[in-house]
## 1
Amino acid sequence: MIKIQLDDSRLKSGLSQLLRNARDTAPMMRGIAEELHNATKDNFANEAWGSDKWPKSKAAAQRKGKTLYRSGELHDSITTQTGATFARIGSNLRYAAVHHLGGRAGRGRKLTLPARPYLPVRGDGKIQKEAEDNILQVVLDSMSRGLK
C-alpha cells in the first residue's frame, strides 16, 4: 500500500494571511489614494489627462505659463482621504469642478470653459489607464503582503 501524506501547513498559513489582508483594507486604501494623488500631480505637470492634452488656456498662453497653474492654488488644494473602505481625492475650491468637468464660469456665467480633467477619474467615471494599472498593482501587493 502506498501512503501519501501532504503537509498543508504552508497553505493554511498563506490562506490565513490572505484573509487577514482582505479584512484590513486600510493600508490598501492609503496606497490607492497615493496613486490617485501621484496621477493628479502628473496631470498638472504634463497639462494632460494621461496622454490626452488639455486645451491650452488663453490666459496661460498670454502669461507664458501652464494651463490651470496661474497661482498654484488649485494644484495645492488637492487632498486625499482614506478609510477602511474608501479612497477619495478632490479639492474644496469652488471653481475646481468647472475646471475638471468644463462648463459655464465667471461673472454672469458668460465664459464657457472646456473640460481639463486633472484628477485621474473623469466626470463620466473613466479612469486613466496608467492610474488604473498602478491601483491594480497596489491591490495585488496589498493582498499578497506577508505571503511567501
## 2
Amino acid sequence: MKIAQIPLLVLSILALLSCEKKGDLTPNAFPQTKIVLDEINLSGEDRLNSVVRLSWFGSDEDGFITGYEISLDGTNWEFTTEQDSLFNFQLEPGADSSDISFYVRSIDNDDQRDPTPAELIVPLKNTPPTVAFQDESFPEDSTNLVMTFRWAASDNDGLESVTTAEIKINDGTWTEFDVNQNILSIMAADPTITGTTTANLFYGNQTVPQVTNIDGFKNGDTNTIYLRVFDLANSMSEPDTSLTVFVKPQTSDLLLVSGENETTTQEYKNLLNQSYAAGYDEVNYVANGAVNQPKFWNPTFQLLINAYDKIVMHGDGTVLTNPLTGSKNLMLGFAAPHLQEFSNNNGKSLVINTFSTNNDLTSIASVVPMDSVSSAQGQVFIETDSTLNPNFPEYPLLASEFNLPGIDPFYATADAEIIYTATLTTQAGWFGPNNVAARRSNSSGIYQVFFSVPIYQFGTTNEQVSLLDQILNNDFNW
C-alpha cells in the first residue's frame, strides 16, 4: 500500500498553529494631562485679577481622551469635554489677594483617570470696582422737584463682586442703597421746604421711596450727587461726581404743564394769574428745543405730578423725541399713563390739547374723556364770532375771536359729560360730532376737564378767567 506524502509547506503551517503562545499582555496606560495658561487680564505688577482664561489638553498612548474633570480642591470634580474656559475665581470676602489651586485630569476611552492630575497655582489680586454716572440721563441745568438719573458700576473681577453702593448729596453723609438699582430719583421729603433738608430715594419706576431722610439735599438750590461702590474684598471705588442741577421747590397745589411755545404759554399764565389766587408752579417741555422734557417720563413726571392736587396741561400736535430712548409722541401721549394714575389717585386735571392731522391718538384715547375723532374726509372749522355753547349754566358762552381751521371735535367716552359743543362750518363732506369739551366725575366730584380747542382764543378775557375760575376753584374744590 502506497502512503500519500504531505507537502512540506502544509506541515510547517500546522506546526505553527500547534505552538502555544506564552507571555503577559501589556497593561492599559493611564492618560496624561497638561495645563496651558492663556489670555490673562493682568492687574497689578505680579498677580492676576480674578478673571482668568485657562486651557488644558490630554494624551493617551494606547487610546484616546473622552473628557476631563476639573477641581479647585483636588477632591470635588466636575466633568467637561471642553479644553478651555473663562474662570471668575472668587476671593475670600475681605481678602486683597489669594492663591487658587486649579486641578485638571484627563479621562480615556477605558474610563481611566490621570492619577497625577495637572495642578496650577493661580496667584490672584483683587482690583477695585469703578462707578460712573450716565451724564446724559441727568436733567438739563434745572428740574422741578425731582432729579432722576442712571448710573453703572463695573469691576474687572466680575460685576457680581460689587456688593455695596452708597450715595451722598452735597455735603451730607454717605447712605447705602440697593446696588442692583441703576435708575434713581431724588426728591425732597417735603418738596415745599426750601433750603437744606432731607430727601427720599426712589428706585426705578417706583413711586414709594425706598430710602428716606438722606441729609444734605438743598431744595430750591443746586445739588451735586456722589456715588461709590464696594466689592467683596471691601475695596472702594473712586467716588464719581454728578452734574450739578438746580431743583425748584413746590410753591402751590397747582402745576402748569406747558407743551406749546412761549407766546401761547404766556396766554395761559395770564389767565391763571387772574383766576387762581393761590399761584402755580410751571414746567415747559417744548421751549428751547424741548431740552427740559423729562428724560424718564416714568418715574420723573409721575413723581412730579403726584406732589400736586391740580394740574393744567396745554399742548398741540407737536411731536417730541425722547433724548434717551429716541421714542416719539405728543407731550400728552408721553404723559397719558401718568395722567391716568394721577386721576386714579384723585388728582384733578384740566387738559387743553389741539391736534394735527397725522397725530396718532391711540395712547391718548380714553385717558381724557375723548374716545375718538371723526375719520371723515373734508374739513371742519370755526368761523369768527361762532360760539362754544355750554351745556351747564355755570360755564360762560364763548365766541370765537378768529377763524379757526383744523378744529378737532370728538366723540366722548361713555363716562363723560359734554360741557361745550361748537358751532361748526364744514366743507367737502366732513361729518362728525360737535363736542369740544367734556368732563368726568367720581363720587367726590369733577376730577377732569378736557378741551380740544384753545381756550384763550374764545370769548373775552373776563369770560376766559371766569371759565378757569369755575373749573379750578369750583369744579375742583373737593
## 3
Amino acid sequence: MKKSMKFIGMLFSIMAMSLFIACSSDDDGPTISDDVPDGFYIVTTADLANPGLGSSLIASVVSAPNFATTPRAGFFETYYYLEAGSSIVFASYVDNVATVYGGAASSEDLGDGTMDVGALSIDGSPYNVSASGVYHVAVDLTTESYYVVPVERWGILGDATPTGWSADTDLTLDGAAASTGANYTGTGIVLRQGTYKVRYNDIWDIQREPGEDGGLNFFTNFGGTTSVMVTGGSNFEHAAADEGTYDVTVAYTPGSGTLNWSISLSKTGDAPEITFDPNDYDWGVIGDASAGGWDSDRDLFYKGEDTEKGHWWAGVAYLNDAGAFKFRAEDGWDVNLGGTLTADGTEATLESGGSDFTAPAEAGAYYFEVYTTDEGTTWMATMNASGWGVIGDGSPQGNWDADMDMNANGFVDGVTTYTIEGDFTTDGWKFRANDDWAINFGGDLNGMGLDGANIELSAGGTFTCTLSVSLGDDGSTKYTATLE
C-alpha cells in the first residue's frame, strides 16, 4: 500500500483511538472545549484547547483539465490572519479529540513572492510566523505537505479592465488586523463590457510537481459572481449597461466555513469616451522576406491594454535572410509602419509610412510585438529570434513548466511549418509562442483557436507533430496541426 494511504489510514485510526486530550484535565494533554465542531484548524501552540472558529480549513478544489475544478480528498485550505512571532500547528478535531500536525518548512520562490512548504507529520514541529498579515494556508494529506503563502497584494484583470488579461490592475492594502480582516482597494478603475477575475500576487495558481498520487495545483484566483466568489471559478461578467468608473474592494473577513473573501464595486462615474479603437489596427507582417510576400500578411494578435505597453499586438512570422518586410494594418496600405528594427529585442520607435525593415541576418522564426502608449500617436516594436513550442503534461516535455521548441522549417507556397518529434500522451498540452502564454493555441487540431482548450489525444504514442501556418480563405492567418 502506498505511503500516503498508510498516512491517511493512520490519521483516522488515531482519531478514533484519541490522544487522551478530550474533555479532560489529564496531564497528558489540555482540556478541549466541548463545542469545537469537527474539522481541521490552524491552532497556536499556546491555545490547542480552544481553536478560533474562524481558523478552520475547508475541504476545497484543485485544477482539472480545460480550466475546470475538481475536489481532492484530503486537501484543505483557508485564508487567515497570522501574527508575527506566533507558532502554529494544524489540528484535526473529531468528537473533541485532537490530532496535532506540524513539520519543518522551507521557502520556495514563486516568481512573484515566496511560499513556505512543510512536511506534515503527527506531532511535528510548529511553523513560526515571521511577519503579521493575511496568509493563504493549505494542507494536503495525500502528499503529506502544508503550504503557507503570504497574500501581499490583490489585482483585477481581464478584458473588462484597463490592462486586459496581460497584467493586473493592482489593489492597495488598506489596513489589516486579526479581528477585522483586510481590505484591498482601487479607485477610479474603468470597467467596460467583458469579463474579469481577481487574483493575489500576480499568479493564477500554486503548481506542485506530480507525485506518486498525482499532481497538486491549487488556486490563487477567484471568479464566479460578485455576490458569491468561488476559488478558481468562472470569469466575472460585466455587462455593457454597467460600463463606468468604479472603486473596487476585495475584502477578507474573518469567518468560518468559507474562504472569507468578497468583492464589491462602487460606481463613481461614467466610463470615458473611447477615442482609440484597437479594432482599426489589425496589424500584420508583410514583405518578400515573409511567407506571403508582398501579397498577404501574417497576422499579429491584439492582446489588450498593458500598464507599460499600452495597446499591444504580438505574433510569430518566419522570415528569410534576404528581402524586406513591414507592418501594415487592416490588410491595406493606408496605415503602415517602417524604419529600423533589429532581432535582439531592442525597442524601436517606428515611422508611419517609413522605409522597409531589412530582413534579419539569419532565416528563422521571429516573435514580434507592436504597441502604442499614446493611442496611436507613437508606435513601438520589438523583434526576437523565437518561435513555437509545445508544453503540457501530454507533450514530449511532460509538464507545464517549460516548452520544448519546435523546428522552424521555412515556408513553401506560402505555408510555414514547424515540427517536433516525441512521445505524446492522452494528458493535455498546447502550442505556445516565445516561451510565454501571451500567444497560445489549443482546441481541435484542424481548427485551433487562440487561448483554446488543452489538446487531448484519444491515444498516446510517438508522433511527428506539425504546426502549419497559412492564409485562410477569409484572408486571415490560419493555424492547423497534424500528428503522424
